[in-house]
Amino acid sequence: MIKVYVSPSCLSSKKVMQFFDKNNISYIKRNIIKEPLTESEIKVLLRFATNGINDIISSRAKLIKHHVFNIESLKLSQIYHLISTSPTVLKRPLILQENKERLQIGYNEDEIEIFLRNDSNNENNEQCEFF
What we know:
CATH class: Alpha Beta
CATH architecture: 3-Layer(aba) Sandwich
InterPro entries: Arsenate_reductase-like, Thioredoxin-like_sf, Tscrpt_reg_Spx/MgsR
Radius of gyration: 17 Å
Number of helices: 5
Family: Belongs to the ArsC family.
Strand content: 5-15%
Protein name: Transcriptional regulator Spx
Order of helices and strands: EHEHHHHEE
Organism: Spiroplasma platyhelix PALS-1
Shape: globular
């Protein structure tokens, strides 16, 4: 199942949901402003983030941009707390498909098409014929 973590005022979040609706792709929408992420949910996101915390934290977020918090100097427990109490520090939308080990951050018209693919767990899906 695809989980889409959004904020209501985010245009990119709306584009992702429109794409999924248009293509009949099932997803669970989660407003992270009304229902902030838990520590365990943040850990899952980080597991799939190539560059760790830097992938999911927005450098344009006011708390980061105005140097209220220096992410590099925070302990992981402090980062979890920051994200839970100030979800606007996250990039949005965050699109997670755990069973396919996919995390897409933001809306990119070309990259989102990966969710149209019906990948199987096998790397090589070619059929072999034996004579």
